[in-house]
Amino acid sequence: MFVKVCGLTTEEQIDWAVELGYSAIGVMVTTKSKRYRTPEQARALADYARGRITTFAVALEASEVAEVTDAFDVVQLYQWADLPNLAFCSANPPAPEQTSKYFFYDASAGSGIFEEFPDWVRAQPGQIVLAGGLDPDNVAAVIAEHHPYGVDVSSSVETAPGVKSRELMRRFKAATEAGEVLE
């Protein structure tokens, strides 16, 4: 199971993600995020993580990641762009020509509010990652019901925006493993 923790702001949080067995981390490079990292900060976090865990630069549109694209393994955008390492994120099905390495279904658009996932998500081809309002208490059931390629978490493993909790990250990761057993 692919498990990504998004909105990381410190090297210590990267260490936790690696130690706990997460598949990837996300660094917010859109100024609209409470977890925003400047291009210099984002590049430093990507450099720190390189070779240890897959890194995602997360933004709304391509122009926001232009300065750091080369530092990250994957670019995750809420507005489709023709990039070879794109993770497209939307609450709507992508058009047939909108191909990407990953498709993140996220109806919450970063709000952290959980909504049931629509049936069309299961029918999407490729690597589908579910996001939006997932937490240690609901992720196992979501995995068992929808059988996604992966899941993504951010606010539910925080004590404040950008302040991750190692214990909540541990609980979320353990719950994803429980969800795989239920499948």
Output the number of helix runs: 5
Distance between the termini: 11 Å
Give me the secondary-structure category. alpha/beta
- Order of strands side by side in the largest beta sheet? 1-2-3-4-5-6-7-8
SSE string, helices as H and strands as E: EHEHEEEEHEHEEEH
- Regions with pLDDT < 50 over 5+ consecutive residues? none
Describe the largest sheet: 8 strands, parallel, barrel
Mean pLDDT: 92
Structure report:
The protein is an alpha/beta fold and 183 residues long. Helix content is 28%, strand content 22%. It contains five helices and ten strands. It has helices at 11-20, 39-49, 119-123, 139-146, 166-182, and strands spanning 2-5, 24-28, 54-59, 74-77, 86-90, 102-105, 127-130, 150-153, 158-160, 163-164. The protein has an eight-stranded parallel barrel. It has a two-stranded antiparallel ribbon with strand order 9-10. Helix 1 (11-20) packs parallel to helix 5. The longest helix has 17 residues, at 166-182.
Helices and strands, with pairings:
Layout: E1 2-5, H1 11-20, E2 24-28, H2 39-49, E3 54-59, E4 74-77, E5 86-90, E6 102-105, H3 119-123, E7 127-130, H4 139-146, E8 150-153, E9 158-160, E10 163-164, H5 166-182
Helix pairs in contact: 1-5, 4-5
List keywords for this structure.
183 residues; alpha/beta; eight-stranded parallel β-barrel; two-stranded antiparallel ribbon; 5 helices; 10 strands; 22% strand
